[in-house]
Amino acid sequence: EIVLTQSPDTLSLSPGERATLSCRASQSVSSNYLAWYQQKPGQAPRLLIHGASNRATGIPDRFSGSGSGTDFTLTISRLEPEDVAVYYCQEYGGSPPGNTFGQGTKLEIK
Amino acid sequence: EVQLLESGGGLVQPGGSLRLSCAASGFTFPFYAMSWVRQAPGKGLEWVSAISGSGGTTHYADSVKGRFTISRDNSKNSLYLQMDSLRAEDTAVYYCARDLTIYRMLNSFDYWGLGTLVTVSS
């Protein structure tokens, strides 16, 4: 079973800055089946990125995903106050069949 | 507009049972695999179970295997989670979620419900 480790646990940046969030897998993620979600307080998660680098419908191009194998990155350029949230990565191609989430990175805006 | 609406949560004693429902609308329900994902208070996301569009294939997290049963009724556009032998550690908000692409299980999830809270406590 793949274990996903996200870093940092908390990230505090100013509006307009660039955020770089990391997700490292304990073994290679097949076919880059790696997704990123944003969860704002009191809300359900929202899909941002799937297939490691494909933006979901309606997601601004400030959000981008990259990486392959065991190392993946979510980049948020030009941070806005509304980006305050917890961000989760998810792997969905591993064995045994199932889904695994990382522990989350909390993004704070100064 | 795609909508998922969970119901059935509540307070239950340890060892008890509860059945969650998720009413789906705005899309062709049988085309999509569906999952349940839970979130304990103040904690991260944990995938619980998935079911194929036809209902013929199911998968479970080890933490719930043998205690929870996922099912669906495509004639009613509804997803269910029967939860038996509940434990305190099952306390969480339970979300139903739709797979991103049709005809494929164990995907990323593009639509989520608002969730229903299950509290297991004496």
Describe this structure in words.
The complex is a heterodimer of chains A (110) and B (122). Chain A has 110 residues and is mainly beta. Chain A has strands spanning 4-7, 10-13, 19-25, 34-39, 46-50, 54-55, 63-68, 71-76, 85-91, 100-101, 105-109. The N and C termini of chain A lie far apart (37 Å). With 122 residues, chain B is mostly beta strands. In chain B, strands 2, 4, 5, 6, 9, 10 and 11 form a seven-stranded mixed sheet that branches. A four-stranded antiparallel sheet of chain B has the order 1-3-8-7, with no helix packed on it. The model of chain B has no long low-confidence stretch (mean pLDDT 96). Chain A binds chain B through residues 33, 35, 37, 39, 44-47, 50-51, 56-57, 86, 88, 90, 92-93, 96-104, and chain B through 35, 37, 44-47, 50, 59, 61, 95, 100, 105-110, 112-115.
Number of strands of chain B: 11
Average residue pLDDT of chain A: 95
Shape of chain B: globular
Oligomer type: heterodimer
Rg estimate of chain A, integer Å: 13 Å
Say how many strands of chain A there are.
11
Largest sheet of chain B: 7 strands, mixed
Keywords:
heterodimer, A: 110 residues, mainly beta, seven-stranded mixed β-sheet, 49% strand, B: 122 residues, 11 strands, 50% strand
Write the layout of secondary structure elements.
The complex is a heterodimer of chains A (110) and B (122).
Chain A: E1 4-7, E2 10-13, E3 19-25, E4 34-39, E5 46-50, E6 54-55, E7 63-68, E8 71-76, E9 85-91, E10 100-101, E11 105-109
Parallel strand pairs in A: 2-11
Antiparallel strand pairs in A: 1-3, 3-8, 4-5, 4-9, 5-6, 7-8, 9-10, 9-11
Chain B: E1 3-7, E2 10-12, E3 18-25, E4 34-39, E5 45-51, E6 58-60, E7 68-73, E8 78-83, E9 92-99, E10 109-112, E11 116-120
Parallel strand pairs in B: 2-11
Antiparallel strand pairs in B: 1-3, 3-8, 4-5, 4-9, 5-6, 7-8, 9-10, 9-11
